[in-house]
Design a protein that fits this description.
562 residues; Immunoglobulin-like; five-stranded antiparallel β-sheet
Length: 562
Amino acid sequence: MKIACAALFIGVSLAQTPDPKPAVVAGKVVNAQTGESIRKAELTLTTSLMPDGVEAMAAQMGLDTGVVAGQPGAKGPKKTFTATSDPAGKFRFDAVAPGDYYFTVKHAGFVDQTYKAAGPNQSEGRLHLTAGRELGEVEFRLVPHGAVSGKVVDEDGDPIADAMVTASKFSYATGHRKLQPSDTGTTNDRGEFRVSKLPPGRYYLSADVVALAQSLMGATPPPPKDGSPETGYVTTYFSRTTDVEQAEAVEVKAGSDVPGFVLHVQKSLVVRIKGKLVGADGTPLKQAQLMLMAGARPGSMRMALVNDPEGKFEMANVAPGSYMAITMQMGGSTPTMTMQPLIVPNENMVDVRLGASADGSLEGRMIVAGDGKVALKGLGVMLAGEEMMVMPATATVDETGAFTLKKVSPAPYELTVPRVPPGAYLKSILWNGREKLGEPLNFSGGVSGDLQVFLGTDGAAFDAKVSSGDKPVSDATVVLLPEDAGRRHPETTRSESTDDSGHAAFKDVPPGTYLVFAWEKVEQGDWFDPAFVKAAANDATRITIGPKDNQHVELKAIPSSK
């Protein structure tokens, strides 16, 4: 009886264990330029940046949401807390459940900002909130958007209405130089445009004559009777060029409004594409919608509605270049969508077959190199499409290191291991015996082959202390960049932010010789720009890191002005 009572007492005690004391987060939102308070800013603490419902959708598609996001998954159900700044710019979260959070703020007219958590207790840039923690005096300094405005005209100087104007910039955020659209606008009946929502930077303005209405009506213009090459309006950059490499960059500063740009849209060679839309079984898609999209040129999109018993289609006024062909089958109870890369040459295309799902499966193996012990089971592998519209393919590694990537399209991908475990680093990617670390895997010719992913276990520890004068510099970015320019890619490069004492700690650094930089302020990925690195070369510290080393270095911060 005493034993039964004791067990009952323990059970009641456990049931009455109080919930962990919530955390408190408070602070202020101000204009980075003027220091003025910003009211009605929207602040969010969330355990996952993926939009609501995306996890379920990704699961239905067989994708690992943690692998797709490239971030550690939330422990348990997604938690989100919101707040709004008051007239004095102040905000407060009174009852936040302990955990790791992304902390973001947004306000119309300003660049969205994410709180940059630093220090050893933070996880992957997230804010670590322990039970009862009170984090006060957090200050967000929002940067005002800039804007550009002007006119779009044709070759005779006449205004073009409904043209799409895009402000794009080159980015190295992925480790490779890519032109990324930042914002778009549409001209009015006078050909006037204004593109806003631009963070400070150098932009390339382009204009496109959008012909979607004509495409949706199915009114494909007839080809020239004499068979001569066709010309049409194509993506044109400021000033008067169809080649972005020859375009003139526009400098946009925080809060500035730069007017007076005139975009003269040029005519150039365009081609026709004829073919059929077919399903995976080879039967015609009688009712479907076909779109050609180029990620860096959103205004160049072309669309056709197909309503033909044989699935025939024809597109006109297509500029040569690289596209993603998106086929949406309209018939049936559930619409289906397929995406395929398409290279359009400088001549008309005939007998093109699109719509058939040519996805394949790719088997691979993860191997541990060295004498370290790494638990492979449960690790993720991801193929990320080089083009934005290509869906990623993900896989989970079993205890033997084997994995299978499914639904791999005939397209170029970049292979990553999003969450390499502690004690290891991504050392090598062999595709049919050839090293592909930092290079794309192109499956345009098929997915059959031998794929091996090696994890190294001889990584080193490296600690840097950053100072300016005699004072430590917090929130500086320390970058370990391989001295060999041919090895500079995200898998071999390391970056960390300094904590309040000016320290940045690195673990599992691949052995090699590096240039070490410590920037007070730097855009993500700028260190992959050869010109940017060359300009800062005199501020670099050269170090050689051996297997399982443990090194420390003192660095001087590179001022923001440099």
